[in-house]
Amino acid sequence: MRKIMLALTGVVALSGCATTPSAAVVPSLSSPPSTSSAPAADQRPQLRLDTSDEERRRLYTAYDDCLVGHGVKVLVNIPGPQGGRRLDDSGDPKSAYLACASRLPLQPKELDEDANPNFAAQWNDHVRCLRKHGIKVHVTKPGEWTWDSETNVHPPNEDQIEQDCLREAFGAGS
């Protein structure tokens, strides 16, 4: 089974292109101080369906840098221009995740099942688009799909097809 998050983060590690960066909302100096230790959702960077791989990578790298700076262990460093690192995802130290929560990018609003009343229908459109482009999958439930069989042919541009179909089905840019 493959979830939206997996689909979007998979693209982060594979390619890059330029775009105008999205800005996080920053409270003004006249804003009253927060009474909660948890960040408000509107303080987190908001991804869009048309967020470039480069911008997505930049936002997640800032989040990862914060986690590492607060004590999360780096398990693997991947060299090269498309490299990166794999962090310990055990959730320890918890204080690091709390300290860095405001840097964790929010997924595109269109992909929020609770906020998008058309999510299920658009997800079905997304999977139809994938199938039309040779990716043989089927919906398991809204927001998830799985392969039709164990012996699937993966097109070399599978990640690009995935992104194009998300944009087409969920109306990026409209």
Rg calc: 18 Å
Shape: globular
Which structural class is indicated by helix and strand composition?
alpha+beta
The number of E-state strands comes to: 5
Q: In sequence order, what are the helices and strands, one letter per element?
A: EHHEEHHEEH
Give the percentage of residues in beta strands. 5-15%
Count of DSSP H/I helices: 5
Helix proportion range: 25-40%
Biggest beta-sheet profile: 3 strands, antiparallel
* Mean pLDDT over the residues: 77
What oligomeric state do the depicted chains represent? single chain
Query: Low-confidence parts, pLDDT < 50 over ≥5 residues?
Result: 1-39
N-end to C-end Cα span: 29 Å
Textual characterization of the structure:
This protein is an alpha+beta fold and 174 residues long. 36% of the residues lie in helices and 11% in strands. It has helices spanning 4-14, 53-69, 94-100, 119-132, 158-170; strands spanning 2-3, 74-78, 84-87, 137-141, 144-147. The protein is globular.
What keywords describe this structure?
174 residues, alpha+beta, 3-stranded antiparallel beta sheet, two-stranded antiparallel sheet, 5 helices
Quick gist of this model?
It contains 5 helices and 5 strands; from the N terminus they run βααββααββα. The chain is of the alpha+beta class and 174 residues long.
Secondary structure elements and their pairing?
Blueprint lengths: L1 E2 H11 L38 H17 L4 E5 L5 E4 L6 H7 L18 H14 L4 E5 L2 E4 L10 H13 L4
Antiparallel strand pairs: 1-5, 2-3, 4-5
Helix pairs in contact: 1-2, 1-5, 2-3, 4-5
